[in-house]
Task: inverse folding
């Protein structure tokens, strides 16, 4: 499959076939300017149809369906998890190439930690440990800064150490913030936020300080306080629920559900979700007033 450097030429040829106008050369120059390097042909073609000024600032993905992907192929569940790591790599690179400011991946829920078989949890921890080491070159190559949310203190010590190492190693990168949600649950996050606010109030005026709490106060105490407002939640595997993921943050986020299992999801599908996002009309509880002279 060709790289994006081939795609502007192909797109220009397509424009020239469709039009004989003098503006075609200008359109070709615009294509050459706007398509990021590194996208494959399909991705670049789709990217050329998007409005880069209307991209979401923060996308979060519920990566669901590894086990079902494996089951349909008569493979063990661990094969689905391994393939899921490949999907992470593809999506992360595409997100970084299009200059997405923030991407958050629901990697391992608090419920997973309690309810999955011990053998599967052990495998997932080993897979995570290996991922954090092996993907560091990709992080640096794409200028990605790695962050984590969740109750990481409950994870194995060697995993915590690898997380701290990976975070420190990427701390000077200035591009996309990739946040991995590990042993994460949104209800736990809200509980932790309120505990932190109560602790702060106890050291700063007690009840009177607590009564001044507002939404911004809560936001400052959430795990995601370092991230932009959440714009888009993507869920793979067709399930129509948030599964205790970023419940506070998703209040006005758009939700995009695909029937694809996570191992089949890639950078092109990420761009498809952004295309759908750009079709949505975001009113935040208000009305979009018709422009003067509109017949609506």
Result:
């Amino acid at each position: 499959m060709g790289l994006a450097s081939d795609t502007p030429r192909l797109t220009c040829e397509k424009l020239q076939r469709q039009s004989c106008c003098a503006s075609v050369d200008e359109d070709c120059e615009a294509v050459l300017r706007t398509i990021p390097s590194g996208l494959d042909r399909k991705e670049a073609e789709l990217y050329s149809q998007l409005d880069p000024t209307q991209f979401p600032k923060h996308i979060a993905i519920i990566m669901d369906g590894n086990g079902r992907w494996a089951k349909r192929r008569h493979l063990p569940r661990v094969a689905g998890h391994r393939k899921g790591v490949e999907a992470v790599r593809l999506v992360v690179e595409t997100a970084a190439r299009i200059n997405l400011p923030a991407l958050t991946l629901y990697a391992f829920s608090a419920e997973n930690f309690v309810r999955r078989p011990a053998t599967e949890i052990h495998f997932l921890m080993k897979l995570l440990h290996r991922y954090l080491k092996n993907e560091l070159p990709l992080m640096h190559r794409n200028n990605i800064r790695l962050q984590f949310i969740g109750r990481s203190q409950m994870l194995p010590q060697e995993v915590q150490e690898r997380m701290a190492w990976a975070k420190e190693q990427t701390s000077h990168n200035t591009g996309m913030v990739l946040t991995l949600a590990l042993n994460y649950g949104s209800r736990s996050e809200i509980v932790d936020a309120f505990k932190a606010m109560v602790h702060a109030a106890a050291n700063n005026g007690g009840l009177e300080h607590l009564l001044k709490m507002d939404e911004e106060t809560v936001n400052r105490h959430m795990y995601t306080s370092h991230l932009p407002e959440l714009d888009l939640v993507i869920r793979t595997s067709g399930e129509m629920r948030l599964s205790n993921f970023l419940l506070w943050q998703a209040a006005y986020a758009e939700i995009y559900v695909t029937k694809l299992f996570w191992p089949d999801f890639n950078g092109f599908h990420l761009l498809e979700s952004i295309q759908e996002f750009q079709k949505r009309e975001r009113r935040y509880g208000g009305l979009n007033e018709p422009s003067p002279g509109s017949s609506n």
Q: What stands out?
A: The chain has a mean pLDDT of 88. Strands lie at 58-62, 102-109, 145-149, 177-184, 232-235, 254-257. The longest strand covers residues 102-109.
